[in-house]
Amino acid sequence: SKTPGRTQLINLFEVANGKRLVDLPGYGYAAVQKKIKNQWQHALNDYLNKRECLKGLVVLMDIRHPLKESDQQMISWAVAVDIPIFLLLTKADKLATSAAKAQLNKVREAVLPFMGDIQVENFSSLKKTGIDKLRAKLDDWFSGVVTAKV
């Protein structure tokens, strides 16, 4: 959707026997009232703290505006509870290839101090960039395989 904050409930998607993807309401910018955003943050916090079967987090960030304060808070939380993170820099097609690569390297460098299991990749649904890496990561999490970070 072109409107930030379109996801307003926790949505579960069954992808295989007992394996689900969960789409959570946005914790960053959303075109909604502050009261609603606060409700989302409370629900997000509850969900993340109570889901023992959580295998990892895929965090979507606009490549042009990565690592906002809310992104850094999410990363800090996930690292603190030892949850692997797959950061996708979305809209990579909006930048020239060299600029997208430079931004990817900049974000990879910026997350090093977090000292967690964090993988960062460029992503474009338009050009299909990063889809194979996302699928591979989800397959690893669903199968319980631990892979080296790239």
TrEMBL record:
Pfam families registered for this protein in UniProt: MMR_HSR1
Keyword Magnesium recorded: yes
Residue ranges annotated for the EngB-type G domain, each copy included: 1-144
Gene3D superfamilies: P-loop containing nucleotide triphosphate hydrolases
GO biological process, any: division septum assembly
InterPro entries in the cross-refs: G_ENGB_dom, GTP-bd, GTP-bd_ribosome_bio_YsxC, P-loop_NTPase
Keywords assigned: Cell cycle, Cell division, GTP-binding, Magnesium, Metal-binding, Nucleotide-binding, Septation
Signal peptide: none
GO terms assigned for molecular function: GTP binding; metal ion binding
Cofactor dependency: Mg(2+)
GO cellular component: cytosol
PROSITE patterns (alphabetical): G_ENGB
Entry superkingdom: Bacteria
Keyword Metal-binding: yes
Membership in a protein family: Belongs to the TRAFAC class TrmE-Era-EngA-EngB-Septin-like GTPase superfamily. EngB GTPase family.
Name recorded for this polypeptide: Ribosome biogenesis GTP-binding protein YsxC/EngB
Species this chain originates from: Candidatus Regiella insecticola 5.15
Highest classification ranks of the organism: Bacteria, Pseudomonadati, Pseudomonadota, Gammaproteobacteria, Enterobacterales
